[in-house]
Design a protein that fits this description.
This protein is an alpha/beta fold. The protein is built from seven helices and nine strands. The protein has one domain: Rossmann fold. A seven-stranded mixed sheet has the order 3-2-1-4-5-9-8, with helices on both faces. Strands 6-7 form a two-stranded parallel ribbon.
Length: 234
């Protein structure tokens, strides 16, 4: 059974992982016969946001991204700092603004040279890229993680058709590919797959279409990688 790491950034679209995207990703991974392994960095969230009003809570204690992500994972989650890329056959990053606030500082930086990714996220993704472990980026994560780590390498990624974010990705040296909500963009060179999900989706039905395709493509690539490794071993 394939083991797929699903990297979360908290709980809730405005300051953590988008819950619908996270659940749909997990559902389709399990429907495709994969074991879902949840990971998150053990760090404070950048902000705590009231999801009812959209207001930032400035006067409450910081929330921990790992502890908040455990809500989605039903407690079965590991700190990203303790995870080893070799233990997984693929990696998927759901969206939600936590991917641009906690997993990176994409949401807060206008100067391209200043944008960076959280230390353990960067290490994990760079190791996966080096070993050609397939990676799926959903919603904002192709921009906030993929384009930042693959800076100036002309990786093909999508967030749909948001002109402002697409321009920011292009300035990072990414080749942004416009994509419909039910589509995916594949970069064979880096073994990366992306889909817009709630960057375009108006509901779960629309978000599910692209996520299901992304999961199938990531699973296919994980199986192909194993087949290649088996041939080399022989």
């Amino acid at each position: 059974m394939l083991k797929v790491a699903v990297v979360l950034s908290g709980c809730g679209v405005d300051d953590g992982s988008e819950i619908h995207e996270s659940v749909l990703t997990s559902l389709h991974l399990q429907k495709n016969g994969a074991e879902v392994c949840y990971l998150a960095p053990d760090i404070d969230q950048a902000d705590v946001i009231n999801h009812k009003t959209g207001e930032i809570h400035h006067d409450v204690p910081k929330r921990n991204a790992l502890e908040e992500s455990a809500r989605i994972a039903r407690g079965e989650i590991e700190s990203l700092a303790d995870a080893k890329v070799d233990d997984y056959d693929a990696i998927i990053f759901p969206g939600g603004f936590g991917a641009a606030m906690n997993l990176s500082d994409f949401a807060y930086r206008d100067i391209i040279e200043d944008i960076d990714v959280e230390l353990h996220v960067r290490s994990f993704v760079e190791d996966a890229l080096h070993k050609r472990i397939p990676i799926g980026f959903i919603c904002i994560s192709p921009a906030s993680i993929g384009a930042v780590i693959l800076k100036d390498q002309h990786a093909k990624l999508t967030i749909g058709n948001d002109e402002h974010i697409a321009q920011k990705m292009e300035k990072l040296g990414c080749d942004h590919v416009p994509c419909d909500v039910d589509g995916i963009v594949v970069d064979d060179k880096f073994n990366v797959v992306s889909t817009p999900a709630y960057m375009l989706a108006k509901n779960m039905v629309e978000a599910e279409k692209g996520i299901s395709k992304l999961v199938k493509e990531v699973i296919k690539r994980a199986n192909e990688r194993h087949a290649t490794d088996d041939v080399v071993a022989c």
